[in-house]
Design a protein that fits this description.
Layout: E1 17-23, H1 31-42, E2 46-52, H2 58-68, E3 72-75, E4 89-90, H3 92-97, E5 102-106, E6 109-113, H4 116-127, E7 136-140, H5 144-156, E8 160-165, H6 168-177, H7 184-187, E9 191-195, H8 199-202, E10 208-211, H9 228-231, E11 239-242, H10 251-258, E12 262-264, H11 266-284, H12 293-307
Parallel strand pairs: 1-2, 1-3, 4-6, 7-8, 7-10, 8-9, 10-11, 11-12
Antiparallel strand pairs: 3-5, 5-6
Length: 308
C-alpha cells in the first residue's frame, strides 16, 4: 500500500466540524477510516473521530457533544439501547428495532435513527431481482443485529422469516418485543422463532440464510454457525449473507459458495449504513453532495486487509 492510498487525513482548521462514533471499546472500528476518506474526497471541512465512552459516562458525553456542536455520531456496542432515553426523539425504524446506531443534531435536539436496516437491504435490492414475498429467510442469532435484519426482511416484503438462536428465552423476549412496535402488523404470521436444534430442518427451504452472530469472526476464522453437512442441503442459488466482514470471506460463506450459493459479507452493509448516516448529517447541514460509496468501499477493503 503506498502513501497516496493512505492519503485520507483530514485537514483540521478552526472551522472544522465534528462527527464520530461512540462505543466501548471503539478502537476496532473502521468507521473513522471510511468516513474521513469520504469527507476528504468531497473536500469538506469535517472530521470523524472515535470516542471510547464507558457506560457510566454516556449521559455526560452526550451533553458534552451538544456543548461543542457535534453534528452527529454513530452508536455501537454497548450503547445502542442505552442511549435511547437520552434522545429527544427516535425514528419509527429505530423504535421498531429497539436500537439506535445514528444520532443527528437538529437545532437543540438529538434525533436517533437506525441505518443498519438500509445497510442490510441495499446489496439485496441493487444486486438481486427477487420476488421477495415468495421467499423464506432464516436468520441466525437473537441480538440487536438480528432485529435489524428482521426489520430489513419485512421492508423487502419477505414471505416468511425464521429466527434461530441458542437461547430460547431471549428469542421469545425478542418475539414479544415486536408486539408493540410499528412493525407488529407486518410481522403477524411471518415471524417464527426456533431453537438451534431446528436449524438443519430450516436450511433446505430457505432462500436467504443470514448469520448475525460473531461465530467465524477473526481470529476464530475456522468456525462457522452452520456445519458443512448442514449447508449441503442449502438450495442452489440461495443467498448466504454473513454480517461479519473479517475474514473476507468467512468459513460460513466459503462453505455456502461451495454449494452454489450467492455469498454476501458484512462489508457492503457497513459501507451502506455509513453512507446513509453521512448523508443524513450532511443534509442537516444543508450540504447536498453525492456520497462517494465506491471510495468508501475501496478504503474499507484496504482497512479490512490491513486489520487481518
Amino acid at each position: 500500500m503506498n502513501d497516496q492510498e493512505y492519503d485520507h487525513c483530514p485537514r483540521i482548521t478552526g472551522k472544522t466540524k465534528i462527527m464520530g462514533v461512540i462505543g466501548y471499546p471503539v478502537e476496532h472500528s473502521l468507521s473513522p477510516l471510511m468516513h474521513n476518506a469520504a469527507l476528504h474526497h468531497l473536500g469538506l471541512d469535517y472530521v470523524y473521530l472515535p470516542f471510547p465512552i464507558a457506560p457510566d459516562n454516556l449521559q455526560q458525553a452526550i451533553a458534552g457533544f451538544a456543548s461543542i456542536g457535534v453534528v452527529g455520531f454513530n452508536v455501537t456496542i454497548p450503547h445502542k439501547q442505552a442511549i435511547i432515553p437520552l434522545l429527544h426523539e427516535i425514528s419509527p425504524v429505530a423504535q421498531a428495532i429497539g436500537a439506535v446506531n445514528t444520532v443527528i443534531r437538529v437545532g437543540e435536539r438529538w434525533i436517533g435513527t437506525n441505518t443498519d436496516v438500509a445497510g442490510f437491504i441495499a446489496p439485496l435490492q441493487t444486486t438481486y431481482n427477487q420476488n421477495w414475498h415468495e421467499k423464506k429467510a432464516v436468520v441466525i442469532g437473537n441480538g440487536g443485529a438480528a432485529r435489524a435484519v428482521v426489520a430489513g426482511c419485512i421492508q423487502l416484503g419477505m414471505g416468511e422469516i425464521h429466527l434461530v438462536g441458542r437461547n430460547m428465552e431471549k428469542l421469545k423476549q425478542l418475539e414479544q418485543s415486536w408486539i408493540d412496535s410499528p412493525l407488529a402488523h407486518e410481522l403477524t404470521n411471518k415471524l417464527k422463532t426456533h431453537s438451534w436444534e431446528q436449524l438443519p430442518q430450516l436450511i433446505p427451504q430457505c432462500n436467504l440464510l443470514v448469520n448475525t452472530t460473531p461465530i467465524g469472526m477473526y481470529p476464530n476464522i475456522d468456525e462457522s454457525p452452520v456445519t458443512e453437512d448442514q449447508l449441503h442441503k442449502l438450495p442452489s442459488h440461495a443467498i448466504a449473507y454473513d454480517l461479519i466482514y473479517t475474514p473476507k470471506p468467512t468459513r460460513f460463506l466459503q462453505l455456502a459458495q461451495a454449494q452454489g450459493a450467492i455469498a454476501l459479507d458484512g462489508l457492503e452493509m457497513l459501507v451502506q449504513q455509513g453512507a446513509a448516516a453521512l448523508k443524513l448529517w450532511l443534509q442537516q447541514e444543508n450540504v447536498n453532495v453525492e456520497i462517494p460509496i465506491v471510495k468508501m468501499q475501496q478504503v474499507l477493503t484496504l482497512g479490512v486487509q490491513t486489520a487481518s
